[in-house]
Amino acid sequence: MSTKTVFERRPKPLSTALYRHPRARLASLLALPMTWLVGVYILSLVLLLMTSFWTTDPFTSRVKPGFTLENFQQLFTTPAYVATTLRTLGIALAVTAICALFSVPLAVFMAKIAGPRARAVLAVLVTLPLWAGYLVKIIAMRLVWTDEGFFNWSLSFFGIKGPGFGVVAVILTLVYLWFPYMAIPVYAAVAQIPANLFDASSDLGASGFRTIRTIVAPLLLPSLIAGSIFTFSLSLGDYIAAIYTGGSTQMIGSVIAQNINLNPPLAAAFSIVPIVLVVVYLNLVRRTGALDNL
What we know:
By secondary structure, this protein is mainly α. It has helices at 3-9, 14-20, 22-51, 70-77, 79-113, 116-127, 134-145, 150-155, 167-191, 195-203, 208-237, 240-245, 252-259, 264-288; strands at residues 55-56, 63-64. A hairpin with a 6-residue loop joins strand 1 and strand 2 (63-64). Helix 4 (70-77) crosses helix 14 (264-288), helix 5 (79-113) packs across helix 11 and helix 11 packs antiparallel against helix 14.
């Protein structure tokens, strides 16, 4: 048997086969991520949507498959559920606005004014909340807002008492949790703005605040939108902060957690609400065209 015959009978390497078949190569690259996306994430959302139309037997507390709009009717007709939805939406918007308000001047100072050492220190301070676990940060903020905590202690010198556990504490806690997700993209965007724009604005007599408002803010709009997607969606789905720092404050996640065992179809129906709110928010953002240059 000749050497040529042995070589022809030798099986082809897998890499050669994939090289000759681009579609097979693409399928092999996308197999695992698509399995996770379709088989786990999308399938779970489909099951969630199906469960929201089911009912719970009031005597046995067992879930009965079927089709009913009663769960969604409760969301729109029960005043407590409507108030919880509006409260959660307001908290998410407030967190997003506060994060954007503080991130722009901080990013300008870090990128254009601060020296290398100060910039490094500020970068560590901004990203510091990301280093600790979620529950650790929540408990730390709870200790801050207690009657004997740091916030009330610092205000006691002025004869002022803090708001205590409530909506304000929830908002500030969520700002503390999600601020890095807004500050980091904004800082990266400010670092790319040419310095001569600041010099030209100063030469034309614009103040620092006006420079930020008329020059920096429009250039930072895509990064602000990108950061707001994180802060808005994460705040909508959070409820641990409300449990530990909100007192009697209820959020959508709180109602879902309370009904996950007692009335799973109602919990599934309420879970659709933040998904719809995020989709609406993303659609509004897309229509503004702010994401076209990202």
